[in-house]
# Entry
Amino acid sequence: MINAAQAIAILAAGAGTASAFSLSMSSALIVQNKGGGHGELGFQLAKNLSSNPKITSITILQDSACNDSKEPFKSYSTDIPNVKIVKADLADESMTAATVQDLLGDSYDYIWDNASKGASGCGKAVLDCAKSWNSKLLTYVSSAGIYKPDGVFPMPETTPIKDTAGQAQYEKYAVDNGLPFVSFRPQYIYGEKSNKWDYIDYFFDRLVRNEPVPIPGDGSQKVSLTNSADVASLLASVLNDESAAVQQTFFNCGTDQLVTYDEVASMCAEVAGVDANIQHYDASLGKAVFPFRLTDFYVSPDMAKSKLGWDGPKHNLREDLSWYFESYKARGGMTKELDLTKDKEVLSPASV
Ligand SMILES: *[C@@H]1O[C@H](CO)[C@@H](O)[C@H](O)[C@H]1NC(C)=O
Ligand SMILES: *[C@@H]1O[C@H](CO)[C@@H](O)[C@H](O)[C@H]1NC(C)=O
Ligand SMILES: *[C@@H]1O[C@H](CO)[C@@H](O)[C@H](O)[C@H]1NC(C)=O
# Structure
C-alpha cells in the first residue's frame, strides 16, 4: 500500500495533467507521422486527452521529419504545453522495440499510432512495445482507403479490404499477436491547424475566380468530411469502454453529417458570397483534379456510437466553412496562380 503523501508525490512526478486525485496513473503515447496526420490528429488527440481524467501523462513520439515552423507542430509548445515531445526518424526501417524503449525510457498504458504504415520498422517496434509494456490498449489510425467497396453505403466495418495494404498488415500482426487492439478508419479530414487543405480549397479556388466547378457524375455522391477535433474525439472514445473497443476492433471514423459534392460546392459559394457555377461532367473522363472519389465512398460512425458511446461530432462543415474561408484568404488562396488545364479537359473534352 502507498499512502496519500506518496501518491501525491507520484502524481506530481508525472508530467501529467491529473485533475482528480487518483492512485492510478495512466500514461498515453501518441506516435505521430511527419505530416501530423493530414488533419493534425495527434495534436488534436493530445488536446482531447489533456482533459480526460483517466489520462495522467501524454507523450508524443513525433517523426523528426516534421517541419516545426508549420502547423500543427509550431503550436505544440503553446497549445499542448504539458505534453512531452520526443522526436525520432520514424521512417528508419531498422527501428526496433528496443530503439523505441531507449528513446522513451518509460512504458505506456495507452498507445495511439498514427505513423506506422505497416508491420515492419516503426510499426513492428510499436506493436512489440505494446506487448512488452502490457499496454491496456493500442489504437491504430488506419484509413477507410483500405476498403474495397462492394456497393453498400454507408460502408460497414465488414466491407472487404485490400489485404496487401500496409495498414492491413499492421492490423493483422496486432490481431495475430493477441494485442488489446482497436483500429479506426477515418475518411476525409480538415482542421484549423491542418497542413493539408486541398479537399476544400478545390471549391474555393474556382468559386472566388468565377470559374466553373467541375464535379464528376450528378453531384449527389456523398462525402464524409470531418473536423479533426471530432476525429480525435472518436479516437479518444475507446477510453469510454475499453473492452467493447477491443471486442469490436474495427471502427469507421467520421462525422454522421454527410454532404453531397454539390452541397459542398454550394456551401462554399455561400460563404464566399458568389454563385456556384457547378458543372457536372461524365465521370468516365476521370477525376482530373477533383479531390474526392468519382463514386460514393462514405461510412457512418454508428458502430462507434453504439459500442463506445461516442457522443457525436461537435463541429459541422457549414459553420466551419467561415473560419476555413478566412484561412483560405490568409494562405493567399485568392491570389495564387491556378492551373485549370485539367478542368478544361473534362469540361470540354471535344476541344482539347
Ligand atoms: C518549413 O516551413 C517553412 C514555412 O512554411 C518554410 O519556409 C521552410 O522552407 C520549410 N522547411 C523545410 C525544410 O521544408
Ligand atoms: C494517420 O491519419 C491520417 C488521417 O486519416 C491518415 O491519412 C494516415 O494514413 C494515418 N495513419 C498512419 C498510420 O499514418
Ligand atoms: C474528447 O473525446 C471524448 C470521447 O469521445 C468526447 O466525449 C469529448 O467531448 C471530446 N472532447 C472534445 C473537447 O471534443
